[in-house]
Design goal:
heterodimer, A: mainly alpha, AhpD-like, B: alpha/beta, TIM Barrel, 11% strand
């Protein structure tokens, strides 16, 4: 038994069932964000993959891995993007160590 | 370099959630041939490579080779009907002993001749002068290079193929190919896996930059081609558990705007025995042109072949996905 099913990605549209107008707005926004603009579609797909890994969404990781490949990226480039996002996430934890330093310094002689 | 892969006979077609004809009907479309401007001749299935995605199931073990009599029939058609383009494919077409005769005679008719050249065949015995032969006859060369990196290329085409392909491209450049508009060298990208190709213009820029920087290789255009779910590639889709998702992806990406530019509308495909099909993919599935049309090159009649109904199957979704796919790359901008 597991909570994540691969097939559920294809059922994403069912979210519209109880609030179609909001889902419609979400989809328009979501799709517009991925269009070619000041950034290329490939750059956006790599950002999407990095964020997907960071938020640990299995559906998004599946979708953006395919999107990155279909925009011409290779695993070396995709891995660099994933490392950067992960390093930021690690750094975000580590920089909170300063809070610990502050707390320590406040109560220490 | 060659990888022993099983030869697949009577390849089944892919399982699709909807038939291609149903999809056309849903969109009020019909697929009918127009004027034939290209004679695409598959001169045999013998190849020095055995690529994992090959729709021909070509390999060094194949023995099907177009005999001289059929080559002559193709030449008769070129002479009589002044078809503008001859597109020679295989296998590795250069391994047909009649290849050079076919090319030189075809050029005398004034036809543009395209050869689908796998690059590595020029390192086989007796083929070393292919770049010069191509140049002397002003052939247009179209060569597969699925990616500008070794790992992806070798994964699809066999260990060692990438390095040989780069050396071959450098030889073609040295012979004058790809450095101007006189001797055209076009490359073909196709996905190394179960996904769709990227935008052709975007990946062409990447290929040009990377091949020039890394290997001082130049070429004219990059064609993106979608992998067709037949034969050896279909077997791979099934083994890897990707058939359903890949077919769904192709069907979801169906683009009605591709219909007008599909290559089957302006091309007739000839197999090594002289049988006629609407495309090389149909040929591999033993799907000849519709029964009312002439069935062999010996009976070629452009009037009877124009307006014929194109024979379709689930694999046709490969040519209509996204920006479309053909032997000349995308078909809808």
């Amino acid at each position: 038994m597991h909570y994540y099913n691969e097939e559920d990605l294809g059922r994403f549209g069912e979210i519209a069932k109880y609030k179609p107008e909001l889902f419609e707005k979400f989809m328009a926004w979501y799709q517009a964000c991925q269009e070619e603009g000041a950034l290329s579609k490939r750059e956006k797909a790599l950002i999407g993959l990095a964020v997907a890994v960071t938020v640990q969404c299995p559906y998004c990781i599946d979708a953006f891995t395919n999107s990155a490949l279909e925009n011409g990226s290779n695993m070396e480039q995709m891995t660099e993007a994933m490392h950067l996002a992960s390093a930021i996430r690690g750094g975000a934890s580590l920089v909170h160590g300063i809070q610990s330093h502050n707390a320590h310094d406040k109560v220490s002689m | 370099m060659t990888t022993a892969l099983p030869v697949i006979n009577n390849s089944p077609t892919a399982r699709s959630p909807v038939s291609f004809d149903e999809k056309l009907a849903q969109n009020n479309l019909a697929l009918e041939a127009a004027v034939i401007d290209t004679l695409q001749v598959n001169v045999g299935k013998l190849c020095n490579q055995a690529c994992k995605h090959c729709h021909v199931d070509a390999s060094p073990k194949r023995t099907e080779i177009m005999p001289l009599e059929v080559v002559e029939e193709c030449l008769d058609v070129l002479r009589m009907h002044k078809i503008p383009t001859l597109d020679i494919t295989g296998g590795a077409p250069e391994l047909n002993p009649n290849f050079r005769y076919f090319v030189t005679e075809a050029r005398k008719t004034g036809a543009k001749v395209i050869v689908r050249h796998n690059l590595t065949v020029m390192f086989e015995a007796g083929q070393e002068d292919l770049p010069e032969f191509f140049a002397e006859n002003e052939l247009e060369v179209v060569s597969s290079l699925p990616y500008f990196l070794q790992a992806q290329t070798d994964a699809q085409r066999g260990t060692g193929v990438f390095d040989k392909s780069i050396k071959a491209l450098q030889k073609l450049n040295a012979a004058g190919y790809g450095r101007g508009e006189n001797l055209i060298l076009n490359l073909v990208y196709n996905p190394v896996g179960a996904f769709l190709p990227p935008a052709q213009d975007a990946i062409e820029k990447d290929f040009k930059r990377e091949l020039k920087t890394r290997y001082d290789v130049e070429f004219n255009n990059l064609f993106t081609i979608t992998n067709m779910p037949i034969a050896r590639y279909l077997e791979w889709l099934r083994r890897s558990g990707n058939e359903h998702a890949y077919m769904q992806k192709l069907v979801n990406a169906f683009n009605p705007a591709t219909l007008e530019g599909l290559m089957c509308r302006n091309l007739i495909s000839v197999d090594w025995r002289g049988n006629l099909s609407d495309c090389d993919f149909n040929q591999m599935l033993d799907l000849t042109v519709e029964p009312r049309a002439p069935q062999t090159i010996a009976d070629f009649d452009p009037a009877k072949l124009s307006k014929r109904r194109i024979v379709t199957g689930a694999h046709c979704f490969g040519c209509t996905a996204g920006a479309g796919s053909s032997c000349g790359g995308v078909v809808a901008g």
